[in-house]
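Exam revision sheet. Question 4 asks you to relate a sequence to its structure. Input first:
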Amino acid sequence: MKTPIGGNPMTVLSMTARPLASEAPQAQTAQPMVRFRDVCKSYGSFSVLNRLNLEVGANEKVAIIGPSGSGKSTLLRALMTLESIDSGVIEVDGEPLTHQLRNGEPVRASEAHVRRVRGKIGMVFQSFNLFPHMSALKNVMEAPVQVLGMRRSEARERAEELLAMVGLGDKLEHYPTQLSGGQQQRVAIARALAMRPKVMLFDEVTSALDPELCGEVLNVVRRLGAEHNLTMLMVTHQMGFAREFADRVCFFHQGGILEQGTPEQLFGQPQHERTRCFLSAVNEAS
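Answer key, structure tokens:
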């Protein structure tokens, strides 16, 4: 029987990470910014994450690829606590996300702890999720004011800087319906950055866009990776971008990492037949 994340916390935190046999060893010398240890998640009888182990270093850029239903988006949603996990540990910047040690004993973390740790993470979704009644400027300003308690003048200045950075300095007062899909996604990226995260998650951020609009969004992501000290995890079906952008590529299969390596290794010399079949199918489709 699985232990729910809200169940016995000793079960959750006392695990020793045992990597899946199919997972490649991960050489992290410094404390990772993100760590998954034996994380499991199921929907009924369907296992979405199967004792997943993953470490992502500070400022590392990791692309996550794989077939539909392999657990890629669930990984990101669990990291944002949008999905509960059944067992295992998720750590961000050295701290357990949903549990704390109190007098040496693991206990369920307070909402304040979860919010604080989760505040180190920003996420950009497939859908833009902008407030339709707010301008681009107010969409970016609102969370820093309401969540961080930032002065409105400071939040406005930062929002203007971020929107200029993503190429929308001339669209501050435009509403979502007045923006293209690519522009809306760039507002969503600016909104996530406004919270000053250490980790940025991107979940198929170009999947809802027409092909000609994908480039403008990927260019923004490319610039973030080059100019900002951010740990970045990107679920993507854009193999060319993953090859160019990522420090490491992880191929997901049946809720775990079947294979991982540098883009040159994974795309150039995949070791597993399942990886080769997936990449071949993607290449044929494109």
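Marking note for examiners. The CA atoms of residues 166 and 219 lie 9 Å apart.
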